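Weekly sync, protein design subgroup
Attendees: M.S., D.O., the rotation student, P.L. (late)

Item 1: inverse folding check
M.S. brought a backbone from last month's batch and wanted to see whether the design step gives back something sensible before we order anything. D.O. pointed out we never logged the input encoding, so this time it goes straight into the notes. Structure tokens as presented (61 positions):
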């Protein structure tokens, strides 16, 4: 079994805009399990995952 990377926090968290949207159930499972493993709130894991994905797509610096 491949070892999983530790979540590296890169998103600044303070007063932020709120947004609501629906996620695919498989994505929710991954966010929930990662949050439990890392002992972090789901919102932090979602922020970090979204940031990493957008950065990989070249949409963020």
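Designed sequence read out in the meeting:
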């Amino acid at each position: 079994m491949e070892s999983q990377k530790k979540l590296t926090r890169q998103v600044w968290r303070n007063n932020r805009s709120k947004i609501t949207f629906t996620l695919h159930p498989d994505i929710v499972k991954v966010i929930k399990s990662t949050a439990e493993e890392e002992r972090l709130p789901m919102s932090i894991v979602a922020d970090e995952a979204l940031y990493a994905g957008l950065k990989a797509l070249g949409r963020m610096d």
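Discussion: The radius of gyration is 12 Å. The first helix runs from residue 25 to 38.
Action: P.L. to compare against the previous round before Friday.
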